[in-house]
Q: What sequence folds into this?
């Protein structure tokens, strides 16, 4: 068990470009969450999957954002036509039915900088 | 929105106990108090949670007042590696499907 893995750790992109991030949850975890965190703020919820089903999306998740978890394992988060306001840390977390009421495990995040 | 209030920042001398307060005056009967921390450039890490009894694990102790309107996270012997942002979160016992709602937390600086 290597924990929640996110790739890449850092991404710099030009405004208007598309970017895609990947999250590999802990292997037996069926729940997967995406959060966004800007400087000085706590993480803000974006979306959540149970297995391959996307069950909840925050109003923060604009039409330019899309997330998938095609086989209920890894997940991708794509941002189209990036804007400078998208610059943030994107965090992924996972939890299992056994520990769902105790803890979620977070990855180290992908730091996006839009220039 | 977060249902908790925490001080923005605190300092603690290395080796001393760090006591981090959290106010959750609107907590309801089926809601737990969770604590996470986030060390710089890392994702949040679970510390402890409790309902009404005091709890202790290898990382910390959680003291919840009798009326459950506030709690204190105690790091008994703070080290420099405990420097982090600490988040107090209130969450329903049966909300395994719902996301954690983070506030701004308390930035703890442990000083040598």
A:
């Amino acid at each position: 068990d290597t924990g929640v893995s996110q790739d890449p750790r850092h991404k710099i992109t030009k405004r208007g470009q598309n970017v895609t991030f990947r999250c590999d949850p802990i292997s037996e975890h069926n729940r997967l969450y995406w959060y966004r965190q800007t400087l000085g703020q706590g993480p803000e919820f974006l979306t959540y999957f149970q297995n391959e089903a996307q069950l909840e999306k925050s109003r923060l998740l604009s039409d330019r954002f899309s997330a998938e978890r095609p086989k209920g394992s890894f997940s991708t988060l794509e941002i189209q036509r990036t804007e400078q306001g998208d610059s943030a840390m994107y965090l992924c977390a996972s939890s299992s039915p056994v520990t769902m009421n105790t803890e979620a495990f977070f990855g180290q995040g992908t730091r996006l900088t839009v220039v | 929105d977060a249902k908790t209030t925490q001080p923005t920042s605190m300092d603690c001398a290395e080796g001393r106990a760090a006591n981090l307060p959290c106010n959750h005056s609107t907590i309801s009967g089926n809601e737990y108090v969770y604590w996470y921390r986030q060390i710089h450039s890392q994702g949040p890490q679970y510390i402890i949670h409790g309902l009404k009894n005091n709890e202790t694990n290898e990382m910390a102790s959680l003291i919840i007042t009798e009326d459950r309107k506030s709690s204190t996270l105690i790091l008994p012997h703070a080290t420099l590696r405990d420097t982090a942002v600490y988040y107090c979160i209130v969450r329903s016992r049966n909300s395994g499907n719902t996301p954690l709602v983070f506030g701004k937390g308390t930035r703890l600086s442990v000083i040598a």
About this structure: The mean pLDDT of chain B is 92. Chain B touches chain A at residues 2, 32, 41-46, 49, 85, 87, 93-105 (CB under 8 Å).
